[in-house]
Amino acid sequence: MISRKIMQDTLEGIAGIANLPLAVYDTEGGGVASSGMALPPEAEIPPEEIAAFARSSADMQQIREELLYKIYDGERPEYVLGVQGTGEQAHMVGRLAAFQIAGLVAAYRERFDKDNFFKNLLLDNLLYVDIISRAKKLHIAEAQERICFVIRSETEWDTGRMETVRREAADPACEHVTQIDEKDVVLILGVAAGEDAAVTEECKAYADGLFGRLTQAGLTDLRISAGTVAKRLKELSRSYKEADMALDVSRIFRGEEQIICYSELGIGRLIYQMPLPLCRMFLAETFGNFDPDNIEEEETQAAEAFFENSLNVSETARKLFIHRNTLVYRLDKLQKLTGLDIRVFEDAMTYRIARMVVRYMKYMEAFDQPN
Prior knowledge:
This protein is of the alpha+beta class and 371 residues long. The protein has helices at residues 4-18, 47-55, 88-122, 128-137, 159-168, 196-216, 236-253, 268-271, 276-287, 297-308, 313-320, 324-338, 345-367; strands spanning 22-26, 31-35, 60-63, 66-73, 76-84, 146-153, 174-179, 184-190, 222-226, 259-261.
């Protein structure tokens, strides 16, 4: 169904060129758009007469001083066009306008069919045989490498925001843009075959450029993620799920990053899939009865800096602007609390994973709390 705004803009453009008043009604006689003509209930022709014409076998009819034309969607009447006037010029304008709007209806129907196909494909609602047959009808290549991007907004999507995304995402490689729910929009991008690292860099560059354009267009509350390459249509749902997961995983473990690739999430994506009982068991085995939340800020900061500097004591002390012995004291204190000496690689790895598990559990427990 064409939006009223687009129908109104189209009608005003035609009326401005033809210099004749025009109106579009639905098949029940209700007003859709108008340029220079009154719509029901103020219209000269009552809705029941327009509805009777829509049900008739005629394609054109004159009622009083107005010419009516049917606008079809396939074989079914979708709208009725009204032209004020009865002369040859009015008849020619009516036929041209009806043809123009019918083309618009067909284009929107094709976009709707394509949107419906991709949405069901991403949500795993199609059998493989249906994917192949429907893709063929819609002229969508089945064996094409693609990547799904998820654009998540803290503000619900409306028609204006969606049109902004479609406009700014316009690119020969951008195959489709569809809204999945009130917060997420999925963009499907065709990519050239290549090494994984090169494809990842290409996707990051595309996402970075798109984020910049959307921000300049006024959409400032967005985060964009990318899944991995889907070599065939049936794999697109996997790429979409990866991109969707990437947004949650990065929020837990990497702060508020605005552009995220699933392939760069590392161990966080494994922890995210762990059931909570297993997480509690792991923490109990790692810390015993000690609550890791009781680790003081100084020790936590020292440990994080120690990891960032590749377990190098001297470099970490320099970056923290503290004496080397002070850092050693804090690491010793951390060892007494947790039983883990993070100067030893295996203990460092255990501690780092445990802290990530704690963060994940807090996120999930907060998420499960009733509002």
